[in-house]
Specification:
This protein is of the alpha+beta class. It has three domains: 158 residues, Beta-Lactamase (2-Layer Sandwich); 108 residues, Helix Hairpins; 152 residues, Histidine kinase-like ATPase, C-terminal domain (Heat Shock Protein 90). It is 52% helix and 19% strand. The strands form five sheets. A five-stranded antiparallel sheet has the order 4-3-7-6-5. A five-stranded mixed sheet has the order 9-11-12-16-15, with helices on one face. The protein has a two-stranded antiparallel ribbon with strand order 1-2. α1 packs antiparallel against α5, α8 packs parallel to α9 and α9 runs antiparallel to α10. Bound molecules: adenosine-5'-triphosphate (ATP) and magnesium ion (MG). The site of magnesium ion (MG) has 5 residues, from α9.
Length: 483
């Protein structure tokens, strides 16, 4: 057993951000307030005592001049006629005492006698030894007296302790009251700040609440809605903009998905209906063996086409899911193209077309051989399919600027300017080539696959075409070894 157990403080966290903001703000504010109140009280205390001590020190120094010790007795030597000296000394002497170094009390103001103030000889010795300038006598606290100490010397140079005091009660009372007021105000202030924080947090978070409501109302069926932005360009606007961009992307892909399923159902339904119609007719009309054969052959063609389409759809579905892992291997693009062209010669001659290839030095590429073949096959198939008898198709492989290039050109029907931007879209077929012998031939998935294959290899496809004169597809792939 590891046995080590850590004690943790229970951590309480409010459930909402509004609560958290208020809580944190209130805690911080309370701490600052407490520190400020403590500092304020401390400074006030210090200043008041500093003033009292200064005052007492002044008085003690003043009195020292008028007190002399004769025969162990203090004698006042001052001008009794001078009203100012008389008054101030009378005030000062209200709390004063003189004692000798042995601790014997020589003279004491009546107030001190009544209060029972006395210094033990040890205390007195300590004051004299330490030359302590101030001393607080404090029993009970309400009757605390602060003394300034001064040393007077008798005729033989004996030291005597002169103490001038003032009562601390009014000051202590004032400080106590101040502290009480402070302590009473603290919770009130903290409560107000918490309430203020709560309101402020709500105001700050209102746009978030608005956004939440707006976002709740957005569903798959109304993805066109957007979150409101306030045009302030702050973090929340940025958040709303980010969400809106996400909604736009979602809307787009939903739209694509919808179109895609509509297209797929259409592409599947039409040939299936045609096959059903033909088969039913053949069965009902008790046709000849030759007619059955014709229907079966035609159905087989259709089934073949559907098969191809489903295979292509599967490839594209994999591509969409990002699941396809290309199996890259080093190969010579020249060789691959030469092989393919050789295979396709049969188709070309059946359609009375010239299929040529121009290949020179090896063009090394790292590619997924299966997909690359599929891409080239789709391009050559198109070229052969959309070129009328008597035309030509040429495939040129070369290396240019550290890229491998394959160009598939034909002298075919070409692609109109309106169709050109769309031919790489799924299920897109230019109208004029939509049918061959009254039947759809191909389903518009060839070029989207070409584009995808080029992209997974880090390459690109370009097309240029002049209607009636021919088309040219240019695929660029990175050369093997080039970064
Ligand atoms: N070489 C070409 N000449 C003329 N038009 C072309 C050529 N290549 C493609 N197109 C046009 O672009 C459209 C899309 O081509 P894509 O290969 O994607 O579909 P498809 O050939 O009709 O069907 P699939 O390839 O799925 O059998 C074609 O229907 C055709 O109209
Ligand atoms: Mg095609």
């Amino acid at each position: 057993m590891s046995g080590e157990r850590r004690l943790r403080w229970p951590r309480w966290k409010p459930a909402t951000i509004r609560g958290q903001l208020t809580f944190q703000y209130t805690v911080l504010f309370s701490v600052i307030l407490l520190i400020a109140a403590g500092l304020l009280f401390g400074i006030l205390h210090f200043i008041i005592y500093w003033n009292i001590d200064n005052e007492l020190q002044d008085e003690a120094n003043r009195v020292k001049q008028y007190v002399q010790i004769e025969h162990h007795k203090p004698v006042l030597a001052f001008n009794a006629g001078a009203a100012d000296q008389n008054n101030s000394l009378n005030t000062i002497f209200r709390i004063a005492q003189i004692s000798d170094a042995q601790g014997e009390l020589i003279k004491q103001s009546p107030v001190l006698t009544v209060l029972g103030f006395s210094l033990r000889p040890s205390q007195l010795k300590r004051i004299l030894a330490e030359r302590a300038t101030f001393y607080t006598w404090g029993a009970p606290r309400a009757e605390e007296i602060r003394f300034a100490n001064a040393v007077i010397y008798g005729p033989q140079g004996h030291p005597y302790l002169l103490q001038i005091g003032t009562r601390l009660k009014p000051i202590n009372d004032a400080l106590d009251t101040f502290l009480w007021v402070l302590l009473m105000l603290l919770p009130v202030t903290i409560a107000f700040s918490a309430a203020g924080g709560w309101v402020m947090a709500a105001r700050t978070l209102k746009p978030v609440a608005d956004m939440t409501h707006a976002a709740q109302s957005i569903t798959a069926t109304n993805l066109g809605r957007r979150l409101p932005t306030r045009g302030r360009g702050d973090e929340l606007d940025e958040l709303a903009a980010t969400f809106n961009a996400m909604f736009s992307r979602l809307e787009e892909s939903f739209q694509r998905m919808r179109e895609f399923s509509a297209n797929v159902s259409h592409e599947l339904r039409t040939p299936l209906q045609a096959m059903q119609g033909e088969t039913e007719l053949a069965l009902v009309s008790q046709s000849s063996m030759a007619e059955y054969r014709r229907v079966l052959e035609s159905n087989l063609e259709e089934i073949d086409r559907l098969n191809r389409m489903i295979r292509n759809l599967l490839v594209l579905a994999q591509a969409d899911a990002g699941e396809y892992q290309p199996r890259m291997e080093s190969m010579d693009l020249n060789e691959l193209v030469r092989d393919l062209v050789e295979q396709m010669q049969v188709v070309a001659s059946a359609r009375e077309l010239q299929l040529r290839t121009y290949t020179a030095a090896p063009v090394p590429v790292r590619a997924d051989g299966l997909r690359l073949r599929q891409m080239m096959l789709n391009l050559i198939d198109n070229a052969l399919k959309y070129t009328p008898a008597g035309g030509w198709v040429e495939v040129r492989v070369e290396r240019r600027n550290s890229a491998a290039q394959v160009q598939v050109r034909d002298s075919g029907i070409g692609i109109s300017a309106e169709d050109l931007p769309h031919i790489f879209e799924r299920f897109y077929r230019a109208d004029k080539s939509r049918t061959r012998d009254g039947r759809a031939d191909g389903c518009g998935l060839g070029l989207p696959i070409v584009k995808w294959v080029a992209e997974i290899h880090g390459g690109s496809v370009e097309v240029c075409s002049v209607p009636g004169e021919g088309s040219s597809f240019l695929v660029r792939l990175p050369l093997a070894g080039a970064a």
